[in-house]
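A note on notation is needed here, since sequence and fold are reported together in a single record. The reader may check this reading against the record printed directly beneath this paragraph.
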Amino acid sequence: MKDQVNVGDAETLAINALMFLADDSELLARFLALTGITAEQIRRAAGEPGFLAGVLQFYLGHEPTLLRYCEATGTNPARFQEALRLLPGGRQDID
């Protein structure tokens, strides 16, 4: 497993995390409620700057969901924070 996360890795993680929640009606309902978008709008929204960062923030904002994803996929939870910093809308340390 790579130590460093690059932008491609970050995007892949966010897309995989989005697919994971889309396959779970309970997670999807919570995600839609928190983001204010509809299921029909997800595909279009996924192309918007900041959307993938929002997916990662959804997981980071609820540790049980994060751990559930990580256990199911063998992903190190720390990769979510690393990936978030690389995505548009997730760079919180930029002046």
Remarks:
- The radius of gyration is 13 Å.
- The helical segments are 7-22, 25-35, 42-45, 51-60, 63-73, 78-86.
- Residues 7-22 form the longest helix (16 residues).
- The chain has one domain: 7-86.
